[in-house]
Amino acid sequence: MRRFLTATAVVALTVGAAGGLARADDVKEVQMLHWWTSGGEAAALNVLKEDLAKEGFAWKDVPVAGGGGDAAMTALKAMVAAGTYPTASQMLGYTVLDYAQAGVMGDLTETATKEGWDKSVPAALQKFSVYDGKWVAAPVNVHSVNWLWINKAVMDKIGGTEPKTFDDLIALLDKAKAAGVTPLALGGQNWQEATMFDSIVLSTGGPEFYKKAMNDLDEESLKSDTMKKSFDNLQKIVQYVDPNFSGRDWNLATAMVIKGDALVQVMGDWAKGEFVAAKKTPDTDFLCYRFPGTDGSVIYNSDMFGMFNVPDDRKAAQVALATATLSKSFQSAFNVVKGSVPARTDVPDTDFDACGKKGIADLKKANEGGTLFGSLAQGYGAPPAVANAYKDVVSKFVHGQIKTSDQAVEELVKAIEDAK
Questions:
Q1: pLDDT, tens digit, for every residue of 134-159?
Q2: d(CA 370, CA 218)
Q3: Helices 384-398 and 225-237: crossing angle, nearest 10°?
Q4: DSSP state of 59
Q5: Distances in whole angstroms, Cα of residue 195 to Cα of each of 192, 224, 369, 404
Q6: Is the pTM here over 0.70, yes or no?
Q7: How far is CA 300 from CA 114, 271, 409, in A?
Q8: CA-CA distance, 138 to 126, in Å (whole number)?
């Protein structure tokens, strides 16, 4: 039984389902709760606002800052428990399913059938956007997290080359350190640390191990020597962060790379949106490489707009939002700015830059080859309680509260078992 919603919240959600927000001025208004507040994210969201404005729908932001979305989900619980449903909320996979299980999501099936979503949206995304045969969410994009983002000028200055193995990456970070540049830009928040660890686990153990440990939650894999080595590799790489990393937001870490104050960031491809917003160009100003040892695999998450069961007079705005979100034109325009790739497979890569084209090709290859894996840190590897337990253990290890890889593995197995 999932533990995302408390019993009290479920009751309140059910009671509130008939009411929602029924003010007259809501009828032509799209109310969106989201955590897209950085420069690149806000620019991407403006694409959707403008599309809806052309159709006569006003946009009402309900933004909650915080890259991992935890604060936004806390705010959403409070809104929905009070019966004040937004038109939609940015959500990650298992969160959509939890609200659907609570019986408070809308039904987009008529729109989805008309628009042919079942044929164009990858099955991995439909697992989270369809519940009990009904479409309850509109996938916005596919992000992948196993990326390196590198300042090209700094790379050239130190004579660095693309790292193909984890040891190559450590050698590259040593070069940056010797040159007086912060080697690794990281924000000391648990979701950032765990997102980086996703890539380290895939690099250390390979695709089959990642799936068993991070998606299947296989206990033997979780407590294996390979997982211990993954924690050893995490310990190695965090030695290259600056002393002020604790609590830093992800986009501020990206800014360190953009400005040349740091060489590299390990982060999902939403980081590219910050480079784009800063008018930087791939291969000229920055470089995008797969985390060494993970080429051929994609660790993904997907932002989705979960649609609530709003009153009839607000459904036209919701349908307009859903239709616009999965239109080919929006999928291209939005993801070009956001750094991600389209959530439908029939969108051409014509308008995408070099990193975007690589992302689209990598996704296609991983989808066809069975190496498309849900990110445990980003809410697609396991339900939220498990993901939170994972992030907590990884963060305690990074910050020295867990001392050894043996202890980390022991704590991880226990925390995941308790969270199931």
A1: 999 999 999 999 999 999 999 999 99
A2: 18
A3: 60
A4: E
A5: 5, 20, 23, 20
A6: yes
A7: 27, 14, 24
A8: 9
